UniProtKB/TrEMBL annotation, chain A:
<feature type="active site" description="Nucleophile">
    <location>
        <position position="86"/>
    </location>
</feature>
<dbReference type="InterPro" id="IPR029062">
    <property type="entry name" value="Class_I_gatase-like"/>
</dbReference>
<dbReference type="InterPro" id="IPR010075">
    <property type="entry name" value="PRibForGlyAmidine_synth_PurQ"/>
</dbReference>
<comment type="subunit">
    <text>Part of the FGAM synthase complex composed of 1 PurL, 1 PurQ and 2 PurS subunits.</text>
</comment>
<comment type="function">
    <text>Part of the phosphoribosylformylglycinamidine synthase complex involved in the purines biosynthetic pathway. Catalyzes the ATP-dependent conversion of formylglycinamide ribonucleotide (FGAR) and glutamine to yield formylglycinamidine ribonucleotide (FGAM) and glutamate. The FGAM synthase complex is composed of three subunits. PurQ produces an ammonia molecule by converting glutamine to glutamate. PurL transfers the ammonia molecule to FGAR to form FGAM in an ATP-dependent manner.</text>
</comment>
<keyword id="KW-0547">Nucleotide-binding</keyword>
<dbReference type="GO" id="GO:0004642">
    <property type="term" value="F:phosphoribosylformylglycinamidine synthase activity"/>
</dbReference>
<dbReference type="GO" id="GO:0006189">
    <property type="term" value="P:'de novo' IMP biosynthetic process"/>
</dbReference>
<keyword id="KW-0315">Glutamine amidotransferase</keyword>
TrEMBL record, chain B:
<dbReference type="GO" id="GO:0000287">
    <property type="term" value="F:magnesium ion binding"/>
</dbReference>
<feature type="binding site">
    <location>
        <begin position="320"/>
        <end position="322"/>
    </location>
    <ligand>
        <name>substrate</name>
    </ligand>
</feature>
<keyword id="KW-0963">Cytoplasm</keyword>
<keyword id="KW-0547">Nucleotide-binding</keyword>
<comment type="pathway">
    <text>Purine metabolism; IMP biosynthesis via de novo pathway; 5-amino-1-(5-phospho-D-ribosyl)imidazole from N(2)-formyl-N(1)-(5-phospho-D-ribosyl)glycinamide: step 1/2.</text>
</comment>
<protein>
    <recommendedName>
        <fullName>Phosphoribosylformylglycinamidine synthase subunit PurL</fullName>
        <ecNumber>6.3.5.3</ecNumber>
    </recommendedName>
</protein>
<keyword id="KW-0479">Metal-binding</keyword>
<keyword id="KW-0436">Ligase</keyword>
<feature type="binding site">
    <location>
        <position position="543"/>
    </location>
    <ligand>
        <name>substrate</name>
    </ligand>
</feature>
Length: 229, 744
């Protein structure tokens, strides 16, 4: 499986995603510039955290007009795995690949800490290695992570099991239904505010995020095997 | 500020506007008569006034700064460049520097703090290094009024706003509170970078005909006379100084950093020199680059990208607009450089050339607006010998007996101590900083030092920033020694060998002989410890004139220190880890209450004289403990500072899920709060106790054992008490959030 890490001007967790995949998971991963127009040859796409275009105007609002976006939309339509963390999640909502929006935190402040989460759906390409309702901890680091959608959308998200991660215990940003991460209806596009790429090594004190990447790599193997039959 | 007819040289001489800009009459006459042989014009007078300011020239502090040792086998670059560089083996180097942004932060706290962070980051990447961590040292007034709360909120937001967006983790620092900082908060920022030694760059412009290129943000009218502004003290009738503060754009700087690192890392053959446009903007960066290379320079100001119309030569040269760098590019590669920066959406423009000789020539709108020797702006600055006198308060206090606290209820005293803002948890602030981005933070804010791993190696770096103005105020020499010892102790406790240090010297008006004496003595004290510990001063910054309506701050040298951890898996934190572990106090405890937190808490002020320190035996003790940690026989280590042993023991228990039974029957309860420097609380598992004692010998005393009951139980000579760890931690964590919330 070959994975693209898209780099926008102002992305700053691109290195962290790359290292998690390359150094820790020994995956085949490449940086792809926002200027590119094609994702041919890639099997999965990851949008990193950071401050794309300085988060000016609105988080993710400018990045969604970059050259690479039509290719990402097309990639998602084909059912291939697309993942966005933090600013990546914000870009995915701005681009309409995921429903809803991310508002400023209730505290009106940037918050960086480790939070408890429940894994709500293990039938996605990113969560198959977790147990149903498993409690994990992941770091968050954002100023605009309060998930919002209208009641109808929320009901649909619940009904279709599109809510993949929920804050357990304290909700750090005021997101509706304690939402920390969701997928699209087809389940191949995941956006989440927590940073699994920051939790992949014991040296840094937390390995709970590692299985997001292991799940993806495992799903890649299955797809390739299926293709072989 | 619209363009207006500028004064003629004669009018300048007669009406002396330069005095307002910070130049003295004596200096003006020396420049006219000795350096130029004519009267300087308006633009030239502006250039002299900023370049001869203390901020750029160190004209007052230079004689004192010469006391600092700045060499060791590891130092690759000492003071004089954007930042100092130290060898860490394997062809790698660590680069670091600290800078103050006190005056801008007092006037416009968000932008003042943000641009302080931006400036120090540029210093690091201008050396060719990748910035990997930020630290800060903040000193505010007491948290008992709305204005101080506003300053704290805005400064903290400014630091986070810039660093978070840049993707550089803010991993450590300190925040203290004292009345003396009320009108003049101290905002010091430190940046640490890492590089391959092959990529080292210098700020120099050499090679006749080579291009001087301007990159980054456009030049506006912001920050004009910022450097001069930083060299004058505040008074209420000068509230108009807001215009001197610059506005930061971290997104622009992120692009600039990535582009510059591509240039320094991959295109060394194009690049001759690179320097940040910091204080005094284009003038300081260009003339310093020419001066360091012994070259002349000609700039055409019409080519400088400008944000506002009709800017005068004076405004273009003195603007302190942020996120700009100056490059010297080998002739013939200008187009390549332009195209590299364009790729990042940035402008790179040739604004001049390196010339033969020593002439600094500026052209604007077809006219020569400046033609002066390069050296007149840099090397010819008149050093000002300053008078020194021993302040009366010190000679008086030497004759008095030192204060000793009378503790009625040790438990209650500890509870109150944990709630003192200087001692209490700073999580409410540090939680708004991204401390983990770049995924190398092993220990973030809250321990004695921050620890980062170095990717691709077994090594780690520990880093700290520390300053205690109270001790320096009571005795500058000993206070200076303690400042360096304390920073080194932070690193030792994390298992790191201290390598070198940087500083921000925050003092009052140096024209006051008592303040100059404080500066001089404290630098002597710091230098002595630097020599003994072999931690040379490789970079730094001086911030004088920290006064508000005539009252000086405590003399507050901030020490930023970086240490090397040989094996990252051997790093330590201050938290107890295993029940049954034996707890030792390393170092002796004396009646050191002068300048302590308990003195301030119980008497509302600080007084007394400090006990002298045997620096050599302190150093031996430090290195013995480091050896024990490197041997892997220590389980946790915490150096004791504000609040003393009682606070140190409580902090070692926070979030540990453990308890402690401490037997201190040789100590009266007052000594629980003594702040004797150079002490540590360490825990050692039983199987290592024998080895530990054999190594530390008389420098350690067993004082108790880690338990599972989640209680801090202390028995001393005169009393016995226990404190639930959960309750103690709650007091410690809630103190500052509670103070920040109250409305008045």
């Amino acid at each position: 499986m070959k994975i693209a890490v898209v780099v926008f001007p102002g992305s700053n967790c691109d290195v962290d995603l790359f290292e998690a995949l390359h150094t820790v998971c020994q995956a085949d991963v490449e940086y792809v510039s926002h200027k590119e127009k094609s994702l041919e040859s890639f099997d999965a796409v990851m949008l990193p955290g950071g401050f794309s275009y300085g988060d000016y105007l609105r988080c993710g609002a400018i990045a969604r007009f970059s050259n690479i976006m039509p290719a990402i939309v097309e990639f998602a339509k084909q059912g291939k795995p697309v993942f966005g963390t933090c600013n990546g999640f914000q870009i995915l909502t701005e681009a309409g690949l995921l429903p809803g929006a991310l508002k400023q935190n209730n505290s009106l402040k940037f918050v960086c800490k480790t939070v408890d989460l429940t894994v709500e759906n293990t039938k996605t390409p990113f969560t198959s290695q977790y147990g149903e309702k498993e409690q994990i901890s992941l770091p968050i680091a954002h100023a605009d992570g309060s998930y919002y959608a209208d009641q109808e959308t929320l009901a649909k998200l619940e009904e279709n099991h599109q809510i993949v991660f929920r804050y357990a215990g304290e909700n750090p940003n005021g997101s509706l239904n304690d939402i920390a991460g969701i997928t699209n209806e087809a389940g191949n596009v995941l956006g989440m505010m927590p940073h699994p790429e920051r939790a992949v090594e014991a040296l840094l004190g937390n390995e709970d995020g590692l299985r997001v990447f292991k799940s993806l790599l495992e799903s890649g193997k299955n797809t390739i095997e299926e293709a072989a039959f | 500020m619209a363009i207006k007819a500028e004064m003629s040289p004669k009018e300048i001489k007669e009406t002396k506007p330069y005095i307002e800009w910070g130049l003295t009459e004596k200096e003006f006459d020396f420049i006219s008569e000795q350096l130029l042989g004519r009267l300087p014009n308006y633009t030239e007078t502006g250039l002299f006034s900023v370049m001869w300011s203390e901020h750029c020239s160190y004209k007052k502090s230079k004689p004192v700064l010469r006391e600092f040792p700045n060499r060791s086998k590891r130092v690759l670059q000492g003071p004089g460049e954007g930042a100092g560089i130290v060898d860490i083996g394997d062809g790698q180097a660590v680069v670091f520097k600290a800078e103050s942004h006190n005056h801008p932060s007092a006037v416009e706290p968000y932008e003042g703090a943000a641009t302080g962070v931006g400036g120090i980051i540029r210093d690091i990447f201008s050396m060719g290094a990748r910035p990997i961590a930020m630290l800060d040292s903040l000193h505010f007034g007491e948290v008992d009024n709305a204005h101080t709360r506003y300053l704290i909120n805005e400064v903290v937001a400014g630091i986070g706003g810039y660093g978070n967006c840049m993707g550089i983790p803010t991993v450590g620092g300190e925040t203290t509170f004292d009345e003396c900082y009320t009108g003049n908060p101290l905002v010091n920022a430190m940046c640490v970078g890492i590089m391959d030694q092959n990529d080292m760059q210098k700020g120099r412009a050499k090679g006749v005909g080579n291009a001087v290129m301007y990159v980054g943000a456009k030049t506006g009218r912001d920050g004009i006379h910022g450097a001069t502004f930083a060299s004058a003290d505040f008074a209420d009738d000068k509230e108009t100084q807001r215009s001197a503060v610059q506005v930061g754009d971290p997104f622009m700087e992120k692009l600039l950093m990535e582009a510059c690192l591509e240039l320094t890392g991959q295109h060394k053959d194009w690049l001759v020199g690179i320097q940040d446009m910091g204080a005094a903007g284009i003038v300081s960066s260009s003339c310093e680059m020419a001066s360091k290379a012994g070259s002349g320079m000609e700039l055409i100001l019409d080519y400088v990208p400008q944000r506002e119309p009709e800017m005068s030569a004076y405004e273009i040269m003195l603007s302190e607009s942020q996120e700009r760098m100056l490059l010297c590019i080998r002739a013939g590669f200008e187009e390549e450089v332009r195209s590299l920066f364009k790729d990042y959406g940035l402008e790179a423009v040739v604004i001049g050339r390196v010339t033969e000789g020593n002439d600094y020539v500026l052209k604007h709108k077809g006219e020569i607006v400046t033609n002066i020797p390069v050296s007149s702006l840099t090397e010819d600055v008149l050093e000002e010998p300053s008078e020194e006198t021993n302040p009366e308060r010190i000679s008086v206090s030497e004759k008095l007996n030192n204060w000793v606290p009378d503790i009625l209820d040790a438990r209650e005293t500890l509870g109150k101590m944990l709630a003192q803002p200087t001692v209490a948890s700073k999580k409410i602030f540090t939680q708004t900083y991204d401390s983990q981005v770049r995924t190398s933070t092993v220990v973030g804010p809250g321990s004695d030092a921050a620890v980062l791993r170095i990717r691709g190696t077994k090594k780690g770096l520990a880093m700290t920033s520390d300053g205690n103005g109270r001790f320096v105020y009571l005795n500058p020499l000993i206070g200076g020694q303690i400042a360096v010892l304390e920073a080194a102790a932070n690193l030792i406790a994390s298992g790191a060998l201290p390598l070198a240090m940087t500083d921000c010297l925050n003092y009052g008006d140096p024209n006051d002989p008592e303040i100059y004496w404080e500066l001089h003595k404290s630098v002597l004290g710091m230098s002595e410890v630097c020599r003994v510990l072999n931690t040379p001063v490789i970079s730094g910054n001086v911030s004088l004139y920290n006064e508000n309506n005539g009252e000086a701050i405590y003399p507050t040298p901030m020490v930023g220190m970086v240490g090397l951890i040989k094996n990252i898996n051997g790093y330590l934190t201050n938290t107890f880890r295993k029940s049954g572990a034996k707890v030792f106090l390393v170092g002796e405890t004396f009646a050191d209450f002068a300048g302590s937190e308990i003195q301030k808490m119980m008497t509302g002020k600080i007084s007394g004289n400090l006990r002298s320190i045997n620096v050599n035996s302190e150093s031996e003790k430090f290195f013995k403990l480091l050896k024990a940690i490197e041997l892997g026989i220590v389980d946790s280590a915490h150096d004791l500072s504000e609040g003393g042993l009682a606070v140190g023991l409580a902090e070692s228990l926070f979030s540990s899920g453990l308890g402690l039974k401490a037997n201190l029957t040789t100590m009266s309860s007052a000594f629980l709060f003594s702040e004797t420097p150079g002490r540590f609380v360490v825990s050692v598992v039983p199987e290592n106790v024998e080895n530990f004692i054999e190594l530390m010998k008389d420098d350690c005393t067993e004082i108790g054992e880690v338990t599972t009951n989640r209680k801090l139980q202390i028995k001393c000579q005169d009393t016995e008490f226990d404190f639930s760890v959960e309750e103690a931690q709650k007091v410690w964590e809630e103190a500052i959030p509670c103070l920040m919330k109250s409305k008045d």
